[in-house]
Amino acid sequence: MRKQMDTADENIVSVIPEYGRQKLLGYAESFRELAELFAKEDEPDICKEDEDRQEYLWQKKLCESKGLLADHLKEMAYIMSDVAQEVYRYRPVRERKYRRMAHYLRESGILLKNFLILENEDGHLELNLTLKTQLHKSIMMDDVADLISVIMNVRILSSKRNPLFIGREWGTYYFQEEPAYYVLTGFARAVKENEKISGDNYSFCEIGQGRVAAILSDGMGSGEDACKESEKVVEMMERLLEAGFRKEAAIQIINGALAAGEQDRKMSTLDICEMNLYTGACNFIKVGAASTYIKREHLVDRLCARNLPLGVFGQIEPECIRRQLQDGDYVIMLSDGIADALSQGAGEEVLPEIIGKITHTNPGEIANRILNYCLHQSRGQIRDDMTVLVVGIWQCA
Predict the structure, then answer these.
(1) Do 292 and 319 contact (CB within 8 A), yes or no?
(2) pLDDT digit string (tens) for 107-132?
């Protein structure tokens, strides 16, 4: 559907009231001041080579921990400031449109009290409607979204914050504009020989309105210990992104948590693909991860990184790569076991050509095709865990 919105005067409104906004900004400033206090800690000096060495190491570890805490406090201050300053463009609803919406919903047994249209900073619509049903039967929220779409002449979806059905009491429900793109995902994996569980873990998740992420982590080694480490990395990253942390800051937090562990701690790679389904923009962040491939028909773009895994150093420099995806593109993410299998055959250099020749359109079939090729190259030997993730993106009709 094409957008045909009212041209009435628009007003800029804050997401939260001014009093709450000022309190958040005050909290943010307090966190920044605390971060500065921790960041002022100086590196310890070695005064005596032998007697004070243990004390020096302990002080150095403490100083590193304070530095990590300072970074975390700065990120919390950033999130608070970002929320406090977030604004929406309020579009007043004309009386004629309000009456038309109320009439159309009433014909389906739904009463309308309030109707608010907001446009966020990215230009995407959000609708808040106060509704209740006057029927004895339940009305699904997705059906309500379809009704609203007809009136707005814009494809509208029900927010995940909504319940499945409209209640018989007045309630405020939230709807949002459908993104321009949608994704389908698929995967294939093989567990290392003589192991029962893979050391690789992954996740496909929604991290905000119209934003999805694919996360892949390869735990060092194999088996249960490697699985626990990579699972911890994936879960922490997923929760931090959903909470609003920036990707780079979330990586530093996870790296700090791993680096602060025991001496026999395990290291893990981290591979993130974040897609904006409204624009098709895609951000890749790689920390010690294997190459990622973007397939566009028969053309293949290989994305590489040359950095160390999580948990090696207290501070790391993740490599960030940006690409603009198009209708019908596929993003293919791999764990290190794939490269290891290819090294036993024709080598990783031939993989772009193999991917380019794949004619399957289902992401799961593409993942299985790549995995089977790698198994063939290694003559069926699985010397390391192997995982293939495929994300296909298409334009909504």
Answers:
(1) no
(2) 999 999 999 888 876 778 889 999 99
Give the number of residues written for the chain. Answer: 397
Q: CA angle, corner 241, sides to 140 and 279, nearest 5?
A: 70
Overall average pLDDT of the 243-258 stretch? 80
Write phi, then psi, for 75 (nearest 5 degrees): -65, -40
pLDDT at site 240: 83
Whether the CB-CB separation of 134 and 110 falls below 8 Å is answered with: yes
Q: What are the CB-based long-range contacts (under 8 Å, 24+) for 310-313? A: 310/233, 310/251, 310/254, 310/255, 310/258, 310/267, 310/268, 310/269, 310/270, 311/255, 311/258, 311/259, 311/261, 311/265, 311/266, 311/267, 311/268, 312/259, 312/267, 313/255, 313/259
Distance CA 62, CA 17 (A): 40
pLDDT, tens digit (0-9, with 9 covering 90-100), for 352-371: 999 999 999 999 999 999 99
Residue 157 CA neighbour count, 13 Å, CB half: 12
Give residue for tokens 């603009």. 324
Burial of 80 (0-12, 13-18, 19+ CB in 10 A): buried
Q: Identify residue 395 by its one-letter amino acid code.
A: Q
DSSP assignment of 221-255: SSHHHHHHHHHHHHHHHHHHHHTT--HHHHHHHHH
Q: Which two tokens stand for residue 222?
A: 């194999």
> 334-345 burial by CB neighbour count: b if 16+ within 10 A, else e?
bbbbbbbbbeee
pLDDT surpasses 50 at 5: no
pLDDT tens-digit map of 301-354:
999 988 888 877 767 778 899 999 999 999 999 999 998 899 887 788 899 999
Which is nearest to 389 in space by CA: 225, 237, 188, 207? 188
DSSP state string for 356-369? HH----SHHHHHHH
Query: Sign of torsion, CA 127 130 135 141?
Result: positive
**Would you state the pLDDT for residue 91?**
72
pTM for this structure?
A: 0.79
CA distance 343 to 370: 15
pLDDT band at 1 (very low <50, low <70, confident <90, very high): very low
Instruction: Name the amino acid, one letter, at 149.
Output: S
